[in-house]
Design a protein that fits this description.
Length: 562
């Protein structure tokens, strides 16, 4: 009997550089950290209430905070009685899979950043409409005004320019994977680089004399966030920008946030005072959450301009002192946010004011406070190899699929999930089970289902959590018994170092004495040893029963790893 097909899945976790200003070891953090985690879990439920109403209404707003919650292992797995919502832990992974399968089913302009993020995180662009996504990125460059800004209205230009610079900065930062997956050439990257540099020059030239970029503190904070990112990455990416000017702009911008012009007030929470920002004269959760996550906590985490002196009711304080001062501190602001969450059962459970932008801002601020390594360092970054899993001896016995596996590395536990594709309606969980370290066997009843996506969630011994999606289009029950003679062995890549590898062939069958069918490899024609250089086809085009709306044939060759 010839050896069976082997599938290797590489599991990952994010590296995180240490920070000079890590508040997570403070006594104040210890007192409210668990409460923050519980609040984030409650908030994840609200996005999936009443048929995912809020998620569908503001997917681009929800995506960053739900992704962060997933990485922090804070997606709620249970929903309280009398709360009309589905389980975030079960539903969110399928939503993310749908983003990779059908990115342009919704408004691709709104989804451009989540799509780019998934491409970076998975190392794999969506399986459809790559040309559309590439043209949207290039179109963003073309939409830049002659003066270097973006936006139609003067009051919107700073925030819109910062948002465009931020996205294009990530295109440059992850040039290899974005260029390879979306087909961007050197000319395109040169244009992106120039657009980032011109956008930064415009921002630095349009900061007010008082330090403000925008009269709205939340939009102002988003500009500060982009300045911090460009400052951090400029040398690494070889950007021709004024780093000293950027640092000075961050300092002035942080000062402005504590000036009377920003609408800041100080709330007494349990005996200490925290800065809270107002809208129309009243303390506002959305504005405060955005200022906290985009500007203050980010500057503190990366220790950028934290020696700047800001105004408090007790006089001048350095920004870094606001994580240690017993009377005026940001921990009080976090407690103020916690007190504003809806905790009673019903459709508003877990939200702040039953509003998408407000809930995302508060949730994101709590996540940034709770786990800045994941929220800041772990978002725009593919993770590093921590463990490896092999699947082998894929066997079908009637409607039952039997998979033998081996897990090695620093992993504590694994959860495997198979999903079935329902086209534009999304992907649904078919089977889920726990895996153990070492060798084991998965037995799955697949009667009536086509397993379309395979996902692993790994919990590591240091408490971090990571996940990996197998490549969409891998239909495991179809491994055995496919008769097509022109199907060739393929190697399908899941990400730069996170991968689902199908090697040795997919076609052919051999029967055990017990009557089961076993996957066996088919010889690869042409090329060197092991068939290298022979004909290769992508799974989506070659396997029958592909996702709805996708063409057949060998049009999916771009999915084969290089």
């Amino acid at each position: 009997m010839r050896p069976a097909t082997v599938v290797a899945v590489v599991l990952l976790a994010a590296l995180a550089p240490t920070s000079a200003l890590d508040w997570t070891g403070s006594q104040e953090y210890g007192a409210i950290g668990q409460e923050c985690r519980q609040a984030v879990e409650r908030a994840t439920i609200w996005w999936f209430a009443e048929g995912n109403e809020h998620l569908n209404a503001a997917f681009d707003t929800a995506y960053p905070v739900l992704f962060a919650a997933e990485r922090m292992d804070s997606l709620a797995s249970r929903v309280p009685l009398h709360v009309p919502a589905s389980s975030p832990a079960d539903t969110w992974p399928a939503v993310r899979i749908g983003l990779l399968l059908y990115p342009t089913f919704r408004d691709v302009n709104r989804l451009l950043e989540p799509i780019l993020h998934e491409t970076v995180y998975q190392g794999l662009a969506p399986v459809t409409d790559r040309d559309v996504i590439r043209e949207k990125i290039l179109g963003l460059v073309e939409a830049q005004d002659d003066d270097g800004s973006w936006g139609r209205w003067r009051e919107e230009k700073p925030e819109e320019t910062a948002s465009a610079v931020e996205l294009l900065l990530r295109v440059l930062q992850f040039r290899d994977v974005v260029g390879g997956q979306l087909g961007l050439d050197d000319t395109a990257f040169s244009e992106v680089r120039e657009a980032v540099e011109r956008g930064m020059a415009w921002l630095l030239g349009h900061q007010g004399s008082d330090g403000g970029f925008d009269q709205d503190p939340a939009d102002h904070a988003r500009v500060i966030s982009t300045l911090i990112d460009v400052y951090r990455l400029a040398d690494r990416l070889g950007l021709d920008v004024d780093r000293d000017g950027i640092l000075n702009a961050v300092r002035k911008g942080l000062e402005w946030l504590f000036s009377a012009e920003s609408g800041v007030t100080w709330e007494d929470v349990d005996g200490s005072h925290g800065p809270v920002w107002t809208r129309n004269g009243s303390p506002d959760v959305r504005t405060t959450g955005d200022v906290l996550r985009f500007a203050l906590l980010k500057a503190l985490w990366y220790d950028i301009a934290t020696d700047v002196e800001v105004d408090t009711p007790g006089g001048k304080r350095k920004l870094r002192d606001l994580i240690e001062d017993p009377e005026y501190d940001l921990h009080a602001t976090v407690r103020w946010l916690l007190k504003g969450q809806v905790a009673t059962t019903g459709p508003e459970y877990g939200s702040w004011s039953d509003d998408e932008g407000t809930t995302a801002a508060a949730m994101g601020a709590l996540e940034a406070y709770l786990n800045p390594r994941v929220y800041y360092d772990g978002y725009w970054r593919p993770a590093d190899v921590r463990a490896e899993m092999e699947l082998f001896d894929v066997t079908e016995r009637g409607t039952t699929l039997v998979l033998r596996y081996r897990v090695t590395g620093e992993v504590e536990s694994l959860k495997a999930t198979f999903y079935e594709d329902y086209g534009y309606h999304g992907c649904y969980e078919v089977w889920s089970g726990e895996l153990r370290s070492g060798e084991g066997v998965l037995t799955i009843d697949v009667d009536g289902h086509t397993l379309y996506v395979f996902r692993i969630v790994a919990r590591y011994r240091d408490g971090t959590v990571d996940d990996v999606f197998a490549v969409a289009g891998l239909k495991i029950p179809l491994f055995a018994g496919i008769e097509s003679s022109d199907t060739s062995p393929v190697r399908v890549k899941g990400s730069t170092s996170r991968a689902l590898l199908v090697s040795g062939g997919l076609v052919g069958e051999d029967r055990d004495p017990g009557g089961s069918r076993r996957v066996v490899p088919r010889e690869r024609t042409g090329g060197g040893p092991g068939g290298a250089g022979g004909e290769v086809r992508g799974l989506l085009g070659d396997l029958p029963g592909g996702p709805r709306g996708l063409p057949g044939g060998s049009a999916r060759e771009d999915r084969v790893a290089r």
